[in-house]
Write a structure and sequence with these properties.
The chain is mainly α and about 210 residues long. The chain has 9 helices and no strands. About 75% of the residues lie in helices and about 0% in strands. Helix 1 crosses helix 2, helix 2 packs across helix 3 and helix 5 packs parallel to helix 8.
Protein backbone atom coordinates (compact mmCIF):
# COMPACT_ATOMS: atom_id res chain seq x y z
CA UNK A 1 0.00 0.00 0.00
CA UNK A 2 1.40 3.37 -1.00
CA UNK A 3 1.93 5.76 1.89
CA UNK A 4 0.07 9.03 1.27
CA UNK A 5 2.16 12.16 0.84
CA UNK A 6 2.21 14.67 3.63
CA UNK A 7 0.53 17.40 1.62
CA UNK A 8 0.27 19.97 4.41
CA UNK A 9 4.03 19.73 5.02
CA UNK A 10 4.81 19.97 1.33
CA UNK A 11 2.50 22.93 0.99
CA UNK A 12 4.12 24.63 3.98
CA UNK A 13 7.61 24.26 2.51
CA UNK A 14 6.40 25.51 -0.86
CA UNK A 15 4.72 28.52 0.75
CA UNK A 16 7.86 29.31 2.73
CA UNK A 17 10.08 29.21 -0.35
CA UNK A 18 7.60 31.32 -2.30
CA UNK A 19 7.48 33.89 0.48
CA UNK A 20 11.28 34.10 0.59
CA UNK A 21 11.35 34.76 -3.15
CA UNK A 22 8.66 37.42 -2.84
CA UNK A 23 10.57 39.09 -0.02
CA UNK A 24 13.75 39.16 -2.09
CA UNK A 25 11.90 40.83 -4.97
CA UNK A 26 10.14 43.25 -2.63
CA UNK A 27 13.38 44.28 -0.92
CA UNK A 28 14.93 44.96 -4.31
CA UNK A 29 11.93 47.11 -5.22
CA UNK A 30 12.25 49.00 -1.91
CA UNK A 31 15.92 49.76 -2.52
CA UNK A 32 15.34 50.86 -6.12
CA UNK A 33 12.17 52.87 -5.49
CA UNK A 34 13.92 54.60 -2.59
CA UNK A 35 17.09 55.40 -4.57
CA UNK A 36 15.64 56.13 -8.02
CA UNK A 37 11.94 56.73 -7.51
CA UNK A 38 8.97 54.57 -8.45
CA UNK A 39 8.29 55.83 -11.97
CA UNK A 40 11.88 55.58 -13.31
CA UNK A 41 12.32 52.03 -11.96
CA UNK A 42 11.32 49.17 -14.25
CA UNK A 43 10.56 45.53 -13.64
CA UNK A 44 13.71 44.81 -15.68
CA UNK A 45 15.71 46.84 -13.15
CA UNK A 46 14.25 44.85 -10.28
CA UNK A 47 14.95 41.52 -11.96
CA UNK A 48 18.51 42.53 -12.84
CA UNK A 49 19.24 43.67 -9.29
CA UNK A 50 18.57 40.19 -7.91
CA UNK A 51 20.10 38.29 -10.82
CA UNK A 52 16.73 36.92 -11.96
CA UNK A 53 14.68 36.97 -15.14
CA UNK A 54 11.73 39.29 -15.66
CA UNK A 55 9.30 36.32 -15.92
CA UNK A 56 10.50 35.24 -12.45
CA UNK A 57 9.52 38.62 -11.04
CA UNK A 58 6.19 38.65 -12.88
CA UNK A 59 5.39 35.19 -11.52
CA UNK A 60 5.41 36.60 -7.99
CA UNK A 61 4.12 40.13 -8.63
CA UNK A 62 1.71 41.01 -11.40
CA UNK A 63 3.22 44.43 -12.02
CA UNK A 64 5.15 47.31 -10.48
CA UNK A 65 1.97 48.77 -8.98
CA UNK A 66 1.45 45.59 -6.96
CA UNK A 67 4.91 46.03 -5.47
CA UNK A 68 4.18 49.63 -4.53
CA UNK A 69 0.85 48.58 -3.03
CA UNK A 70 2.49 45.94 -0.86
CA UNK A 71 5.08 48.43 0.38
CA UNK A 72 2.35 50.89 1.36
CA UNK A 73 0.11 48.22 2.92
CA UNK A 74 2.98 46.84 4.97
CA UNK A 75 3.75 50.30 6.35
CA UNK A 76 0.15 51.02 7.35
CA UNK A 77 -0.44 47.52 8.75
CA UNK A 78 2.50 47.98 11.10
CA UNK A 79 1.26 51.37 12.28
CA UNK A 80 -2.31 50.15 12.72
CA UNK A 81 -1.00 47.16 14.66
CA UNK A 82 0.67 49.51 17.14
CA UNK A 83 -2.37 51.69 17.83
CA UNK A 84 -4.65 48.64 18.03
CA UNK A 85 -2.43 46.81 20.53
CA UNK A 86 -2.04 49.91 22.67
CA UNK A 87 -5.78 50.56 22.62
CA UNK A 88 -6.50 46.99 23.72
CA UNK A 89 -4.26 47.39 26.79
CA UNK A 90 -6.57 50.01 28.36
CA UNK A 91 -3.60 51.97 29.72
CA UNK A 92 -3.78 55.42 31.35
CA UNK A 93 -3.73 58.07 28.57
CA UNK A 94 -0.17 59.33 29.08
CA UNK A 95 1.21 55.81 29.27
CA UNK A 96 -0.80 54.79 26.19
CA UNK A 97 0.43 57.77 24.17
CA UNK A 98 4.02 57.20 25.30
CA UNK A 99 3.92 53.52 24.32
CA UNK A 100 2.24 54.21 20.99
CA UNK A 101 4.79 56.93 20.19
CA UNK A 102 7.75 54.74 21.12
CA UNK A 103 6.57 51.78 19.04
CA UNK A 104 5.39 53.94 16.15
CA UNK A 105 8.77 55.69 16.01
CA UNK A 106 10.66 52.41 16.11
CA UNK A 107 8.68 51.13 13.14
CA UNK A 108 9.53 54.28 11.17
CA UNK A 109 13.21 53.90 12.06
CA UNK A 110 13.28 50.22 11.08
CA UNK A 111 11.24 50.78 7.91
CA UNK A 112 12.29 54.30 6.93
CA UNK A 113 12.78 53.38 3.27
CA UNK A 114 9.28 51.90 3.01
CA UNK A 115 7.76 54.86 4.85
CA UNK A 116 9.58 57.29 2.57
CA UNK A 117 8.36 55.45 -0.52
CA UNK A 118 4.79 55.45 0.77
CA UNK A 119 4.67 59.20 1.42
CA UNK A 120 6.54 60.07 -1.77
CA UNK A 121 4.64 57.75 -4.11
CA UNK A 122 1.15 57.48 -2.60
CA UNK A 123 -0.42 59.32 -5.56
CA UNK A 124 0.79 56.47 -7.79
CA UNK A 125 -1.09 53.81 -5.82
CA UNK A 126 -3.88 51.90 -7.62
CA UNK A 127 -7.38 52.87 -6.53
CA UNK A 128 -8.10 49.70 -4.54
CA UNK A 129 -4.85 49.93 -2.59
CA UNK A 130 -5.33 53.66 -1.98
CA UNK A 131 -8.82 53.05 -0.60
CA UNK A 132 -7.64 50.25 1.70
CA UNK A 133 -4.79 52.39 3.00
CA UNK A 134 -7.10 55.37 3.53
CA UNK A 135 -9.33 53.12 5.64
CA UNK A 136 -6.35 52.02 7.76
CA UNK A 137 -5.27 55.64 8.21
CA UNK A 138 -8.75 56.54 9.44
CA UNK A 139 -8.61 53.67 11.96
CA UNK A 140 -5.22 54.85 13.21
CA UNK A 141 -6.48 58.41 13.55
CA UNK A 142 -9.58 57.25 15.42
CA UNK A 143 -7.48 55.29 17.91
CA UNK A 144 -5.03 58.17 18.43
CA UNK A 145 -7.91 60.59 18.92
CA UNK A 146 -9.41 58.27 21.53
CA UNK A 147 -6.17 58.30 23.53
CA UNK A 148 -5.93 62.08 23.26
CA UNK A 149 -9.59 62.62 24.13
CA UNK A 150 -9.31 60.36 27.18
CA UNK A 151 -6.24 62.30 28.30
CA UNK A 152 -7.95 65.65 27.96
CA UNK A 153 -10.99 64.43 29.89
CA UNK A 154 -8.66 63.12 32.62
CA UNK A 155 -6.91 66.49 32.79
CA UNK A 156 -3.47 65.14 31.81
CA UNK A 157 -3.45 66.59 28.26
CA UNK A 158 -3.99 70.21 27.34
CA UNK A 159 -4.61 71.04 23.67
CA UNK A 160 -7.11 73.19 21.81
CA UNK A 161 -8.39 71.01 18.97
CA UNK A 162 -8.54 67.21 18.91
CA UNK A 163 -8.16 66.87 15.13
CA UNK A 164 -5.15 69.18 15.04
CA UNK A 165 -3.53 67.47 18.04
CA UNK A 166 -3.93 64.06 16.38
CA UNK A 167 -2.33 65.30 13.15
CA UNK A 168 0.54 66.89 15.07
CA UNK A 169 1.25 63.67 16.96
CA UNK A 170 1.08 61.29 13.99
CA UNK A 171 2.85 63.74 11.68
CA UNK A 172 5.69 64.36 14.12
CA UNK A 173 6.35 60.64 14.46
CA UNK A 174 5.77 59.44 10.91
CA UNK A 175 8.02 62.12 9.37
CA UNK A 176 11.05 60.81 11.23
CA UNK A 177 11.78 59.09 7.91
CA UNK A 178 12.50 62.49 6.35
CA UNK A 179 15.63 63.08 8.42
CA UNK A 180 16.71 59.67 9.72
CA UNK A 181 19.65 58.05 7.95
CA UNK A 182 21.96 55.16 8.80
CA UNK A 183 24.43 55.26 10.39
CA UNK A 184 22.86 57.62 12.89
CA UNK A 185 24.56 59.70 15.57
CA UNK A 186 21.80 58.71 18.01
CA UNK A 187 20.70 55.16 18.76
CA UNK A 188 17.16 54.14 17.86
CA UNK A 189 16.31 53.88 21.56
CA UNK A 190 17.48 57.45 22.16
CA UNK A 191 15.51 58.75 19.20
CA UNK A 192 12.39 56.96 20.47
CA UNK A 193 12.84 58.46 23.95
CA UNK A 194 13.23 61.96 22.54
CA UNK A 195 10.19 61.54 20.31
CA UNK A 196 8.09 60.49 23.30
CA UNK A 197 9.22 63.65 25.14
CA UNK A 198 8.38 65.87 22.15
CA UNK A 199 4.97 64.27 21.65
CA UNK A 200 4.04 64.56 25.32
CA UNK A 201 5.03 68.23 25.34
CA UNK A 202 2.96 68.84 22.20
CA UNK A 203 -0.19 67.73 24.04
CA UNK A 204 0.60 69.62 27.23
CA UNK A 205 2.26 67.08 29.47
CA UNK A 206 5.81 65.85 30.13
CA UNK A 207 5.34 63.08 32.70
CA UNK A 208 4.12 59.50 32.38
CA UNK A 209 1.05 58.56 34.40
Amino acid sequence: MTKPRNKPKDASVWDEVTELKREKILQSAVDLFYARGYLPTTMDDIAESIGATKPFVYYHFENKAELLSEIARRTLREWLGVTTRVSEKSLPPTEALSLATQQFTLIVLNMYKLVSIYFREQLNLPKDAAEEIARMRREIDTQVRTILSDGKKAGVFDFEDLAVASQVVTGMVSFVFAWYREPSRLSKDEICKQMVSHVLRSVGTTTAS
